[in-house]
Amino acid sequence: MMRKNRTWPIHLALITxxxxxxxxxxxxxxxxxxxxxxxxYPPSILPKDPHVFFFVDVWxxxxxxxxxxxxxxxxxIVIALNLVFNAMAGYALTKNFRGKKVVMLLLLSCMMxxxxxxxxxxxxxxxxxxxxxxxxxxxxxELSHIICILIFKASFDAVPKSLVEAARIDGVxxxxxxxxxxLPLSKSAIATNVILSFIWSWNQLLWPLIIIRDTEMQTIPLxxxxxxxxxxxxTGALYAFCVMALVPTIFVFLLAQRxxxxxxxxxxxxx
Length: 271
Hints:
CATH architecture of the largest domain: Orthogonal Bundle
Radius of gyration: 23 Å
Strand content: under 5%
Largest sheet: none
Order of helices and strands: HHHHHHHHHHHHHH
CATH superfamily of the largest domain: MetI-like
Structural class: mainly alpha
Helix content: over 70%
Mean pLDDT: 84
């Protein structure tokens, strides 16, 4: 009983911090249904005359459904191939081979290079492959992430070596060991890969802006920029658009938040 009484200040502090962190989300939602001036003073805590007209504007005045489908389709490709490529690369890094430290050093060094510095060669490669203005071209730079490879490596290192050796004795090929033995035991790494790949691909603006020429191929971020140029008074409609774009990201995170935190913790503590 004494121990429980000692923890209530911690719980109270955490609840208070959580409420403060949720204020921006509440303000976006409030503005999306009220369309109030965000610079008004004093600000109103509760929305005045709430309605869904701004959501209707977003839905009908631009091809939001098409933008949403494009983003979902590209994100699906990115997540699926990320799981395959990152898992294989992470499994390879669990092996002892000559030059492993050099490979790890190169991977860590590449993490410090921003995407903007590689966007010209990425565009040239994509153009040579004939993938401009295509779904595969949109997904190409996001097909693997170094941080996700390292998270898979850390998770695979925690799998008992006896399971891998037993599978080899039974004649299981290496690719089946990855997908039949290692991945089922690495749910936290999978969840982390899914969430990070989803967020990074979903919010990508610069790359689609460069390679997309057809308005039918635009994604949600490009649709938002088009929406801002289409409307003059965009306060309520802009926030409604943001809410509609945020819902999938929040939904995916809430589905796997526990595994996501476990995956990041594993990646931070493993050598």
